Amino acid sequence: MIKMENWKDELWELDSMPTQELDELFIQSAEAKRNDVGLINPSNGAGILIREDQTIEAFADYGLGFRIDPVTQSFSIFAPTIKLFYNKKEEISWDEEFTYFRGEYEEMKDILEAGDVDEKLS
Predict the structure, then answer these.
(1) C-alpha–C-alpha distance, residues 120 and 93, integer Å
(2) Whole-angstrom distance, CA of residue 44 vs CA of residue 50
(3) Strand, helix or coil for residue 22
(4) Which terminal residue of the chain has fewer beta carbons within 10 Å of its beta carbon, N or C?
């Protein structure tokens, strides 16, 4: 949040940032850097990269691939058509509090409240 007394400094900082050309950004995203790890097929450019900023990218063709970005906490899929095949569908409503414990939440809460964590978890 910008405080009113600092707005000119913030604006100057934003205005003085170097510009980034979209073509240049595309070229950078299509190249493996020194600290990137992955596989790229030299004949067709398809590949998967784990970038030094922990981003994971995989592309099979221009506009066809995915990107996992830890900075934005996002999983992006790029494809003209997406097909999903599954036996069971589970949904998480983001209107509710999200937990990785799923059904174990109440059990973990009881263990923590009881205070005898070592005894119950062993």
Answers:
(1) 31
(2) 19
(3) helix
(4) N
